[in-house]
């Protein structure tokens, strides 16, 4: 019954890696879009908008993503609305990413010196124009390293989706381990695949940073 | 902390799930033309991956037989020991066939059919452990897969034992083989297979707890479906097909007088 760990299994892990990458990409894109709105709501000079954004961020950051996964997957089906594992995972991780990215980007926006706001106001730019042309371009540069750092975390956190039966890299490794009882070969392979993804991403980020700095 | 929150969240959701109206009774399955069955993918030899990484195992075979018996399409869903009950309780699947033992506590959440197979579970250790039964047990650490029948059995018999729980049998086996725990509570078939593969670290039985029957899980509130599964099990026990399957996957036939519910 117990079989050997073979080359077929490495292929199986690589195929499962597609889901890790897709889940991360989808969550980063959807979460990033929401985060953009939340980060702006967080800094606009309008108290109720600030409170709304702070409430959202605290709610999401204060609950474990594992619990959010359970709520989207099992919670909705209680009301007769059947949500698939992929939809539930993308929803949960998008919301999770949106709260963290919003806070990271808020920090970036606020780290742009106040004089930049003031001098652009003196040029007669409106609030949105100042944000769009003066503040955001400077904040983007500051934000690249922490954003990539968070996405690297996100890649590794997607392994939590295995609890709702979503087969990504970690879950595939776990399944193979129960067929072969060869944890060392399997988890070393899994770790190597994660490393390749995360290392490449950090590398791209460093290059991007350098390129953006040239414009200065 | 995470584990705690998950347990609370899933318990809360399961309890909500029970109050929701069940919509998977026999007629609905026949109307839909599909039966949705949850099987494990990480519990050898009940459900695991073969060389081509296809899901195989005793439970997968039983699921196929059930779909055939109902005359409908089979839709297999992978369940884990952590979510197999929530899946049923929230009607994501019609049946769970996942090496599941019946306990009064689990029966508060889902219904169990008559047993379709059984496995020997027990405590194993190195040949020179010097232990002859559970009563010789001191403070040796014991590895076991969390939430399994052997975990429940061991916890009931030896509440003070030093039990270390892991996610699944493979992880518990690794803990034993790497020396993180001294003893290993598992199914007979797994202990035998591990010993065959690595005779130097052969696992010797210290005590066989019992012959643990496995049941099909049915969501509450589906009396016709439960009755049908019971009839299916009764019929295929009598004609020997379930015994054949058990011999093929677990290495021994079912006893002549096999219990039923």
Q: What's the shape of chain B? A: elongated
Whole-angstrom Rg of chain B = 19 Å
What is the overall pLDDT average of chain A?
A: 92
User: What form of chain A results from the Cα inertia axes?
Assistant: flat
Quickly name the level 1 CATH class of the domain at 17-166 in chain A.
Mainly Alpha
What does this structure look like?
The complex is a heterodimer of chains A (216) and B (261). Chain A is mostly helical. Helices cover 82% and strands 0% of the residues of chain A. Chain A has helices spanning 7-43, 47-61, 65-78, 85-111, 114-122, 127-157, 169-180, 183-214. In chain A, α4 (85-111) packs across α6 (127-157) and α7 runs antiparallel to α8. The model of chain A has no long low-confidence stretch (mean pLDDT 92). In chain B, the strands form 2 sheets. In chain B, strands 4-1-5-10-6-9-7-8 form an 8-stranded mixed sheet, with helices on both faces. Chain B has a two-stranded antiparallel sheet with strand order 2-3. Chain B is built from 9 helices and 10 strands. Chain B has 261 residues and is an alpha/beta fold. Chain B folds into 2 domains: 2-118 and 213-250, D-Maltodextrin-Binding Protein, domain 2 (3-Layer(aba) Sandwich); 120-211, 3-Layer(aba) Sandwich (D-Maltodextrin-Binding Protein, domain 2), CATH 3.40.190. The chains are: A mainly alpha (216), B alpha/beta (261). The A-B interface holds A 1-3, 6, 8-9, 12, 64, 66-67, 70-71, 74-75, 77-80, 82, 162-165, 167, 174-179, 181, 183 and B 2, 5-6, 9-10, 13, 16-17, 20, 41-45, 48-53, 77-80, 82-83, 86, 90-92, 167-171, 173-174, 189, 193-194, 197, 249. Chain A: The chain crosses the membrane at residues 20-44, 56-79, 85-105, 179-201.
Please describe the topology of this protein.
The complex is a heterodimer of chains A (216) and B (261).
Chain A lengths: L6 H37 L3 H15 L3 H14 L6 H27 L2 H9 L4 H31 L11 H12 L2 H32 L2
Helix pairs in contact in A: 1-2, 1-4, 1-7, 1-8, 2-4, 3-4, 4-6, 5-6, 6-8, 7-8
Chain B lengths: L1 H18 L6 H7 L1 E7 L7 E2 L5 E2 L1 H13 L2 E7 L4 H6 L5 E6 L9 E17 L14 E5 L3 H9 L4 E5 L2 H9 L5 E5 H10 L5 E17 L3 H16 L2 H10 L11
